[in-house]
Each structure stands twice: as structure tokens, then as C-alpha cells.
Amino acid sequence: MKRLALLIFMAACSVLVLAASSPSAVSGTELTIISKTTLTADHVGTIVIAADNIKLDCAGHSVTASDP
């Protein structure tokens, strides 16, 4: 059971990392960051910093709220 939980956790982390590096995946969505992240495009939506000591490098891109 612990192996399954670890596998699910690792898969979820992989999805988050891929979302952070894919411009089409981050626009208009909630982006949860759990490790050092560099934006590759402008982000429209919410960014959640879900761990301590996280660095978000916007790399010249903007972060704006989506329209309600």
C-alpha cells in the first residue's frame, strides 16, 4: 500500500513539473509549485506555492489573475 501511495505521489509531482514547463498547460489554470520553477510563458490564473523555500523565476513573463 505504501508503494502505491508513493507511486501516486511521484506521478502527481511529475504532472506538476510538466505543467510548469509547458506554456499551454499553465495558461488559465491553477499552477501549484512544489519545487524551483521557471516560467516558460505568461501565466493567467492562480499560482499556489505549496512548499517552503521555493523559488519562482518568472524569466520575464507576467502573472495575471484570470477574469472571474
Please give the structural blueprint.
Layout: H1 2-21, H2 23-26, E1 30-33, E2 37-38, E3 43-44, E4 46-49, E5 56-57, E6 63-64
In which order are the strands of the major sheet placed?
1-4
Proportion of residues in β-strands:
15-25%
- Count of DSSP helices? 2
The rounded Rg comes to: 13 Å
Q: Estimate the helix proportion, in percent.
A: 25-40%
- Describe the biggest sheet? 2 strands, parallel
Q: For the residues shown, what is the average pLDDT? A: 73
Structural class by helix and strand composition: alpha/beta
The number of distinct structural domains comes to 1
Order of helices and strands: HHEEEEEE
Question: Can you put this structure into words, describing what you see?
Answer:
The protein is α/β, with parallel strands linked by helices and 68 residues long. The protein has one domain (2-64). It has helices at 2-21, 23-26, and strands spanning 30-33, 37-38, 43-44, 46-49, 56-57, 63-64. Strands 1-4 form a two-stranded parallel sheet. It has a two-stranded parallel ribbon with strand order 2-5. Strands 3-6 form a two-stranded parallel ribbon. The longest helix is centred in the N-terminal third of the chain and has 20 residues, at 2-21. It is extended. The N and C termini lie far apart (40 Å). The model is unreliable at 18-27 (pLDDT under 50).
